[in-house]
Amino acid sequence: MITPLIFPLNVSFTIFCKALGIIRSDQDQDISIRYSITGVGADQPPNEVFSIDPELGKMFVTKPLDREHRSSYHLRAHAVDMNGNQVENPIDLYIFVIDMNDNRPEFKNQVYNGSVDEGSRPGTYVMHLSAFDADDNTTANGMVRYRILSQTPHSPIPNMFTINSETGDIVTVAPGLDREKVSQYTIIVQATDMEGNLNFGLSNTATAIITVTDINDNPPMLTSRTFSGEVPENRVDLVVANLTVIDADQPHSPNWNAVYRIISGDPSGHFTIRTDPISNDGMVTVVKPVDFEMNRAFMLTAVVSNQAHLASGIQSSLQSTAGVTISVQDVNEPPYFPTNPKHIRFEEGVPAGTSLTTFSASDPDRLQMQQIIRYLKLSDPADWLSINGTNGQIITTAILDRESVYVKNNIYEATFLAIDNGSPEASGTGTLQISLIDINDNPPALVPRESQICERMNKNVNGVNITAADADTDPNAGPFVFELPNYPTSIRRNWTISRISGDYARLALRYQVYLKPGMYEVPIVVSDSGNPPLSNRSVIKVKVCPCDEHGDCTTLGAVVAAGLGTGAIISILICIIILLCMVLLFVVWIKRREKERQTKQLLIDPEDDVRDNILKYDEEGGGEEDQDYDLSQLQQPDSLDHIISKPPGVRRVDERPIIPESQYPIRPVVPHPGDIGDFIHEGLRAADNDPTAPPYDSLLVFDYEGSGSTAGSVSSLNSSSTGDQDYDYLNDWGPRFKKLADMYGGGAED
C-alpha cells in the first residue's frame, strides 16, 4: 500500500533537483516496482516541474517554483511491476509552495494628489494612498505598513500631517494651514512589508501632493477711506470714480470677487458701482442724469464685500467702507418746453393769420447769465403754421383742413425748435398737436356711380341700392336725403327713389314703365345732415338690360345695353362664321395635300437614288516628275480640219468620231406608265448604236505620269466577269453596296 503524502515546500524559488521525499510500496520487497507521477507539473503543463526516480521512488523539484504564479500542485503517484501491471492504487500528492518575502509593495501611482481647506482642524481627512504586495497577505510577507518620510515645506511645523500605518489615510495633526502662506505641501510616503519591519521588510515610496484650498478668510479692504470724482450734468453711462480694493484670497474666485454697494448719499439712484472683472476695482457709474441746478455734489458711502460669505469666525474689516465725493459740473443745457407735447383744439377752416397759441420754452440754466431763446419751425408737413422767433407765438399761414392727408385721427402735428445763445448753443424740441374740430365743409357724394337694372320692373329683384360718402364726420355726415331733380321731367316720370334707412335708398323704375336696353344717366340730389346741410347733384349711370328669371342681365342683353344694335350684332356673328369657314377650308386643303404627298410613287427605288450621295475625296498629289506635261493635249481644238483631212481609217482612237449623231427617241410630255419600259429600251438601243456617245469603248492615251509613282499598275485589274473571283465581301460594306452584293455575291448560287 502507498500512503498519501503532503510535501510542503518552504521555498518560493528553489534550487533545481531538490529532493521532496520518497514513495515506497509494501510490495517492493517481493517484486521489482516502477514508480511514476502524473498531473499538473509532471506530465501536464507546466511539464517536468516535478520528477521521480522510477526505481527508488524519490521525488525531486526540477524547476524554480513561484508561489505568486502557482501556490499548490496536485499530483498522483503510480506503482506498476515490470510488465506494467498496476501493483498499488494511485495515491494523491498535494504539494504546497510556502511563501517567501520576494515582492516589494507597489503603489498604483507614483504621485497622488489631494486637497484640504485652509484653516482645517486637526484630524481632518486629506487623502488616501494604498500599495499592493504580491506576497501572501496572511503572512507578514504581504502585510504592508505606511509612514511619512518627509514634508516640504516645514511651515508652520515639520509634521502638519500623519498617515494611518495600516489604511494609508492621511489626516492633519496640527492647526495653522494658511493658503496665503503655503498653498501646497509635498509628502514622501513609504510602504514596507513584514508589518513595517525595516530590518527584514521590503519598501517602496510614493509622493503625495496636498493642495491647500482657499476659503474666504480675508475680507476685501479698500485702499483708501475716501474717493472723489466729477460728473458733467445730464450725462449717463459715464465712470466718474474708481475704487481700488485688496483681497488676499485666491484671485478670480468667489472669495476674491468684490461686490460694491452704495448705502447712503444717493436716494434718487443716480449712481451705481460696477466691478471690473480683471482688476476687481469698483467703477462708480452714472445711470441717471444729474442736474447741477439741483445738486452740485453727492456724498456717497460705499461698502465692499465678496461674492462668497466670509468663513466662520472671520470678521469684516473696517476698511470695507469708504466715502465717495462726486462733484457735478455745470454745462449749457438746452431749453425745454414745459408742456411737451402741447395739445390745443381749433375748428377747421380758420383763416390764415389766426393766432393759435404761444409755444414758449424755458432755460434750465438758472444759475448762469440770462440767456436769449429763439424759435424755429422744425416740421410742418402741410406748411400751415409759422412761429414767432422771439416769443414762440404760433400763427396760421393757410386754412386748416381736417380732411387733409396730413391729419391723422383729427390731429395735426408740428414740431418746433428752441435754441439758446449759450456756449456752445443748445437746442430743445417741442411738439404741438392741434385737434381739429369738424365743420360741414364737404358735400356728400353718391355711391355707387354705376349700376344695372332690368328693363321691366320686378317687385322682388328690381332696383339699385345707393348710399353716399361724406368726408365730414357726425353730425355733418348722415343720415342723407336722396331726391330726384325736377328737371328734366323724364327723370321723375321714369324713376323713383325710396328710403331704406338713414344712409341708404333704392333707385328703381316706376311700375309699368318700360325703357329700351341701354345706358341711362340718372341725376340724384344728395343732402347731408349738417347745419346748414350741404347738397350735391350726382349722376349715376344705370345700365338697363333684359334679365332672366333670377333678375340677372343676360349676355345678349348686356351687349345690347352697351349700345350695339341688332344689326350690328348680326353682322359680327356673320363675320365670325365666315372666318371659321375659311379656317376650316384651309385645314382641309392642308390635309389633302399631305395625303397626296404620301400616296405619290417614285419612278426609282429610293435605295438606287444616289443624287444626294456625292462623296468628295482629297486629290491625289503628285511628285516632282509628273509636273511637266503638255496641257494642250487636254484642250478642245479650235477646228477639226486636221482630223477631217486624215486618210480614211487613220485616226486616234481617243478622238470623238466625226459622224452624224444618232437620233434619240423623244420622251412624251405625259408618259403613260406602261410606256416607260419601252422608252428606256429605245434609249438604250440608241446609245449602243451611237459611236459618239461616251465612253467610246476605246483605249485612251494620256500623258506620261512619270516614274517612281507609288501607285500600282492598273493593268492588273481584270474587268472580265469570268473567273473564280469571290465578291461575298461586298455584303460587309453596308447598305450602299447592297445592289452590287446581290448582283455579284450570289453568282455561284445562280
TrEMBL record:
The keyword Metal-binding applies. The chain crosses the membrane at residues 568-590. It is a single-pass type I membrane protein. One of its GO terms (biological process) is cell morphogenesis. Residues 25-107, 108-222, 223-337, 338-446, 445-556 form the Cadherin domain. The keyword Membrane applies. Its main location: other. Keywords: Calcium, Cell adhesion, Cell junction, Cell membrane, Glycoprotein, Membrane, Metal-binding, Repeat, Signal, Transmembrane, Transmembrane helix. PROSITE patterns: CADHERIN_1 (PS00232), CADHERIN_2 (PS50268). One of its GO terms (molecular function) is beta-catenin binding. It is found in: Cell junction, Adherens junction; Cell membrane. It holds the Pfam family CADH_Y-type_LIR. GO terms for cellular component: adherens junction; catenin complex. Cadherins are calcium-dependent cell adhesion proteins. This is Cadherin-4. It comes from Oryzias sinensis (Chinese medaka).
